[in-house]
């Protein structure tokens, strides 16, 4: 499978990211969704590079990490520990190779399979959740929000930063945020990519 290493440079560090394309890829529909650095991941990484206070000394999870640019950068910016998650080991292989490329310590960054809707594998405190372009398929919206809400319920002070590209006005996450008691604050908009901070409304 053809592979490519991209370099993303920031003020204090640079991140090497492994990409892989399908052998017979002829257009974007042939690219495995998790194996390409999508614009939302770049926007989210740029935000945390400019606002490292969200990350430093925090336990961070990246949801649906794919190539894991935001999670890799979070580790370099001083997160206590970063957990990169995706739905299968195969999906995490590219992220694991990027960890090795950047010579990051496994004590500071690791990978774990996590199915949306099931947080039972998460058995440690979470301060921050990162999610870039997870809201791609409307069929997944409810499971993703349920996952985020469960993490926030278990970790009441947790903050969730999502990069959300608005692809259609007919699909929105707002009804699910209301149902699962999450509130949203817009941080910024870059090229139709919305950076949103989610927190629980159930904090006593």
Automatic annotation (TrEMBL):
GO cellular-component term (any): nucleus
Signal peptide, first to last residue: none
GO molecular function: methyltransferase activity
InterPro entries on file: Methyltransf_16, SAM-dependent_MTases_sf
Keyword Cytoplasm among UniProt keywords: no
Coiled-coil regions listed: none
Alphabetically ordered keywords of this record: Methyltransferase, S-adenosyl-L-methionine, Transferase
Stated name of the protein: Uncharacterized protein
């Amino acid at each position: 499978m053809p592979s490519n290493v991209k370099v993303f440079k920031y003020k204090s560090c640079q991140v090497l990211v492994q990409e892989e394309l399908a052998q017979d890829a002829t257009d974007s529909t042939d690219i495995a969704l998790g194996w390409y650095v999508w614009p939302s991941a770049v926007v989210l990484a740029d935000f945390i590079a400019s606002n490292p206070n969200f990350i430093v000394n925090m336990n961070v999870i990246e949801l649906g990490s794919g190539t894991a640019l935001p999670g890799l950068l979070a580790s370099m910016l001083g997160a206590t520990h970063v957990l990169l998650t995706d739905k299968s080991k195969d999906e995490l292989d590219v992220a694991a190779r990027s960890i090795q490329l950047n010579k990051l310590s496994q004590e500071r960054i690791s990978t774990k399979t996590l199915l949306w809707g099931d947080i039972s594998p998460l058995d440690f405190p979470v301060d921050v959740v990162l999610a870039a372009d997870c809201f791609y398929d409307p069929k997944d919206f409810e499971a993703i929000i349920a996952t985020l809400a469960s993490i926030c319920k278990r970790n009441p002070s947790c903050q969730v930063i999502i990069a959300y590209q608005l692809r259609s006005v007919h699909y929105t996450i707002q009804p699910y945020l209301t149902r699962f008691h999450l509130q949203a604050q817009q941080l910024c908009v870059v090229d139709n990519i919305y950076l949103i901070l989610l927190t629980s409304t159930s904090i006593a």
